[in-house]
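Recap from last week: sequence in, structure out.
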Amino acid sequence: IMRRPAHPYSVNRPVYSEDSFSEEHQNICRKHKTLQDHVKVYLRCDATRVKRVACSLLPIIQWVRLYNVKKWLVGDLVSGVSTGLVSVLQGLAYCLLASLPPWYGLYTAFFPVIIYFFLGTSRHISVGAFPVLSLMVGSVVTRLVPDEGPIANITGFEGLTKDEQRVMVAASVTFLMGIIQLAFGLVQAGFIVTYLSDVLISGYTTAAAIHILVSQLKFVLGLNIKNYTGPLALIYTLEEIFAQIENSNIASLVMSAIIIVVVFIVKELNERFKAKLPVPLPIEVAITVIACGVSYACKFVEKYDVDVVGKIPVGYEPPMAPSVEIFKLTVMDAFPMAIVAFAVAYSVAKVYAIKHEYTIDGNQELIAFGVSNIFGATFRSFAASTALSRTAVQESTGGKTQVAGLLSAIIVMIVTISIGFLLEPLPKAVLGAIVIINLKGMLMQMRVVGFLWKKDRPDCVTCKEARRLYDIHIMVLYNHVTCHITISSACGAFSSPRCSLLANISGTDIYRDCKDYRNIFAPSGVKIFRISTPIYFANVEFFRNKLNEYLGFNPLRVLRKRNKALQKIKKLLKSGELQITEKGLLYMTSNSNEDSDDEGNTEDLDQPSDYKDLPLQVNWNAELPANMRVPKVDVHSVILDFAAVSFLDISAIKGLKSALKELIRVEVDVYIVACDRYVLEKLHSCSFFDDEIKTSMFFLSLHDAMLHVMENHPIILEYNTLNEKVSCVSPARLYGFSVTHTVFILEQTDVDMEETNI
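Predicted structure tokens:
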């Protein structure tokens, strides 16, 4: 038995060829800018442009004028001290990964931070050592200056100790890495990070975590194992560890095991009760202080032969010039280091920029990190990026701007020039244990492999290949990492997506770019968005940004503003400062006129608006009480034309799902039309649908979706000023087809309307 469709329609229009359609409907000839036009705009110079360029190159000019001393200074002070202590500890620990004396990690936690304070656009990231980057530096260092065997034939090595030679290699490759980042920034190549998929970065960092874990076992076990380089180095390292495991230092092993367990438990408690804790418990700092005290009091070096940090020189060493000879030997290493450092820093910065509702500039970030690494390398620091754990400390302890970063650098400087001797009895096993426990996040990324294998095998292959290629000691050449990143970026750059807003050609069921035709119908509150390319990791952010641009608002920002307003309304209602009358909300007291700067739990602000305890429905487009400001949304429906979308990868599905949920949560109906059957099946297999995103939002054609929208949101085209008579034109008549069995209910508060059958 076949069911009759609920709302059948028929189309009545001529049969069009492209030529006949162009003759009947006038096409607007748009002038596209030539290369010469773009060059003229780029080279134009006036006072406004000079000011904009200056603010762009020195972002501090913009935010320092808006610095709220009363509200932000205390938070930045607390954050700066907390982050500074963590930076000291992580600088010492990650320096071991770079195969350098530990105190050079303090240089990396100081010099790059100073430059980033002036040039960076992120207000929250903590600049300094990053474990993956430290490992990459260590690979270069041990290749040119191995523990055993001949060192590289470099003129500048004459008369230097092995440690000094290694510092020269690390500083030189960092200097070259900074030059590459600066060059990318000057040519506006910040877009390159979009061609590194989440899966690629995940596989890359997971493989690095495995190498870091193995490299720290010698400190945890207290073994004297040389650093291997070249093919199968990871296997050789494990082989020697198992061969010498009977000689493990029991004191180092027991101490490391206790620290790993304690730090793990406290970190889990911090994560579980983060909403209730004012600041995370600084367990790493506390455990380091205790370990130093116990090591000194119990004389671990003399009694148990424990390897400790040892003598830390007071003050800073004079600047040094990089070696051009090392440049020639490490140029293929510096390139992936520059890309990975920027990709990680940009990803972390973007998370906090979205959370705190400000923007970051990818090109300026490249310039900032380029200059930071060049300056730092001059003073013997090694490659700097950021670490998620350290950045989380800086943000969660109240940091509002890079003033917190500057204060953390001052704390590191104080340790370097005055109290560094207190860290001399610190066992290296403690540093190794802290490095290992901080790898948890990167190692847990391996769980995605099983999911990808079930849902999207091409992405899973990419992930495995990224890890396999990153295993620089197992692969024949370390340069394969460079090739892999280059190939991945090139593959992502094959297509340049084109997005457009569509409108209906009046009297037809045909839709065209609204910029190309005059005789079009675009009902208010409806946006028809088309992307003419497959969506994948490289362009999903472009898709989301372009959609927000055409909509005229950022749905996530609107949602957060609404939820903050709801929290305030509930609070004022509970305290009696707001009362509900027949006309709505009334503001009762004058004490609550100031907007609260407390954002609360940002994760809660991203959730659907909770009207459960609110005795009325809020009209977000009306004026709100208590000086609350929420962006108005004049769009009620968004139609996404997926006719040209033949492929979606895992990253695109995640990005699309996030974008749709943001729109749905701000009460915007979303419809997807002309979706390929393969794409729809993939969405089902990848758990795309849930309580918010339902299959009912998919329509066979754009015209079907538009009819559905017009049924739910009928339009009143004209009525007279005396409200004596209201005339309505059916949307169906505008479209040149007839609709049967359709009832439109027109709601008008000050006009007596009846149900109208069309």
